[in-house]
Amino acid sequence: IIPPRLTLKSTLTQNSQNTQVYYATQFNQLPISRRTLFALTDNSYQYLTAIQKKALPLALRGNDVLGAARTGSGKTLTFLIPILELLWRLEWTHWDGLGALIISPTRELAMQIFQVLRKVGKNHSLSAGLVIGGTDFEEERERIGRMNILIATPGRLLQHMDQSTDFDCSRLQILVLDEADQILDMGFERTIDAILRNLPKQRQTLLFSATQTRSVQALARLSLKEPEYVAVYERN
Ligand code: ADP
Ligand code: MG
């Protein structure tokens, strides 16, 4: 296991001349839309977790982020909020097509992310869908062409990229690779490589992983641009 190269502190010092980073302990101190904030409040989210404190300001600023934190640390909101805010700022509508893509290792995790997105995204008028297989391919194909945010498992996503001519990701703004170590452990490395080749290079990318193995570092080099490294190691 390779330790992260930079702690947030050194990252911030390095960037302090030209950029401003918000420090927030509560969601209402973040530069986010009222739509998102009200949904967070409705779901009783008030204080940021450690990973959210470190990564949210950077992700909201548009940086690529490589985040390491254990399961249960609150990584889902760390990428869903930046997605909602980016598309909100771009005034993304139904007609703009796919703006955000979240890749998750398993159906179960994808469905969990979808449930959280439904809660925190409820005041936004964006469409979101799952691409996880288990349903009729044709039906899924018909549906995903109309989605602004997709949550997908790697195999099924690549199948759509290869076979669905109307699957258009040319306007993608933000990519999330969640549980990257698990994605790689499950043998999806080449699938992810192929997916990345189909995505526009100009985009924001957030990569989360519980551990930072060599293969995660390699994927980070392939997918991220000048990433900020953010890690939270709790003492138990
Ligand atoms: P991870 O993806 O890091 O494993 P999750 O995003 O699934 O973690 O979050 C784990 C749990 O913590 C969930 O039940 C979630 O609702 C809760 N949670 C996340 N962020 C906060 C927060 N800021 N305040 C309170 N609970 C939170
Ligand atoms: Mg998670």
Summary?
The protein is 43% helix and 13% strand. The protein has 236 residues and is α/β, with parallel strands linked by helices.
Beta content comes to 5-15%
Q: Please give the count of helices.
A: 10
- Biggest sheet architecture: 7 strands, parallel
Q: What's the pLDDT, averaged over the residues?
A: 90
> Per the principal axes of the C-alpha atoms, what is the gross shape?
globular
Q: Could you say how many structural domains there are in total?
A: 1
What is the CATH superfamily? Answer: P-loop containing nucleotide triphosphate hydrolases
Reading off the top of the CATH hierarchy, the class is best stated as Alpha Beta
The side-by-side strand order for the widest beta sheet comes to: 3-4-2-5-6-1-7
Order of H and E elements:
HHHEHEHEHEHEHHEHE
The proportion of residues forming helix, as a percent range, comes to: 40-55%
The CATH topology label is Rossmann fold
Structural overview:
With 236 residues, the chain is of the alpha/beta class. It has one domain: Rossmann fold, CATH 3.40.50. The protein contains ten helices and seven strands. A seven-stranded parallel beta sheet has the order 3-4-2-5-6-1-7, sandwiched between helices. Helix 3 packs parallel to helix 4 and helix 7 packs across helix 9. The protein is globular and about 45 Å long. The two termini are 19 Å apart. It binds adenosine-5'-diphosphate and magnesium ion. The site of adenosine-5'-diphosphate has 13 residues, from helix 4.
